[in-house]
Amino acid sequence: MEKIALKASEMNLVFGGKDESKDVYAGYGRARQLTHRYIRAFGADFPSGADILIPASAGEKELKYKTKIRLVNPYAVPATRRIDSNNALVDWTIHVDDVIPF
């Protein structure tokens, strides 16, 4: 899928929470390593929430609920889901280099 660049200055988001079950891992067994952490954010542009993936190298983020956040170098990646023979939905995942509270 193609990446779509986003303007971080136009995104007013608040932290909605973490879900460790949606973290992204690479490898199996003892070689399994965390590659991306998953957080959920809300805002005027994303009233139902946005899925955000942060590289594990950015470190663990300790944010309080509804803390305003700024995204560093965001881009969106679409993921389609087929509903039936003629319809599909597009889920957008936002990938960032880091998340900064402000």
Automatic annotation (TrEMBL):
<dbReference type="InterPro" id="IPR038620">
    <property type="entry name" value="YdcP-like_sf"/>
</dbReference>
<dbReference type="InterPro" id="IPR010365">
    <property type="entry name" value="DUF961"/>
</dbReference>
<protein>
    <submittedName>
        <fullName>DUF961 family protein</fullName>
    </submittedName>
</protein>
<dbReference type="Pfam" id="PF06125">
    <property type="entry name" value="DUF961"/>
</dbReference>
